[in-house]
Design a protein that fits this description.
By secondary structure, the chain is α+β, with helices and mostly antiparallel strands. The protein contains six helices and five strands; from the N terminus they run ααααβββαβαβ.
């Protein structure tokens, strides 16, 4: 009799277990109990992270493209700046001697400032500093103090590397002042040197490796 009762209990337990599983599946309690809800939440979190990483990667790629574009632009600007500097340097230190043009420019400035060139004496050409040669001239001008100062400033501002040096000023000789029609007694004579530079020429017949 006990065996029969035990046999009857098995189907009943099976039915009750199936009902419980069905209820949990319907209500969701079983899924939460088994941790599936947490797994789904973590999956959603992973998807969100992947989306965020994709967005960051896209922004990074865009920044790289902009950086590359900006770098090329910076290089172009730097190259243009170097070209402009080279052109200016070639103007300031030409590859050939342009002394006649230089003297004409100085003479023009003297006329503008109201001073008179009294002496222009070239000195021997000197080698250096490499890769240039140095040209030096003894000069003297007659004029008043302010005019001479403006004239020397003009020389220094010419589009060439010209260095006035060793400036001395003394009262102009009375005869010189009289020739120039100046009776103020304030005329001065300024004596100085100017130095300019010209790119050295290659020796004729020079070849590399000899």
């Amino acid at each position: 009799m006990a065996l029969l009762n035990d046999s009857n209990k098995v189907p009943i337990l099976t039915i009750l277990l199936a009902a419980a599983v069905g209820y949990m599946a319907y209500s969701g309690d079983g899924i939460e109990l088994l941790g599936l809800d947490g797994l789904q939440a973590r999956k959603a979190h992973v998807v969100a992270l992947q989306d965020t990483l994709s967005a960051v990667q896209a922004q990074t790629d865009s920044a790289k493209r902009e950086l590359a574009k900006g770098t090329a632009e910076d290089l172009r600007k730097e190259l243009d700046s170097h070209r402009a500097s080279l052109a200016l340097l070639r103007q300031m230190v030409p590859e050939r001697n342009e002394v006649p043009n230089l003297l004409d420019a100085i003479s023009t400035r003297a006329k503008i400032r109201g001073v008179n060139l009294a002496q222009v004496v070239p000195l021997p050409e000197q080698a250096g500093p490499v890769p240039f040669n140095t040209f030096t001239y003894n000069m003297s001008v007659l004029g008043h103090y302010d005019e001479i100062g403006e004239f020397l400033a003009d020389i220094a501002s010419l589009p060439r590397i010209i260095v006035p040096q060793g400036v001395t000023m003394i009262p102009a000789a009375a005869a010189s002042a009289k020739v120039l029609g100046d009776t103020s007694g304030a005329m001065l004579e300024a004596k100085f040197q100017i130095r300019t530079f010209v790119k050295s020429a290659e020796p004729e017949g020079a070849t590399s490796g000899t």
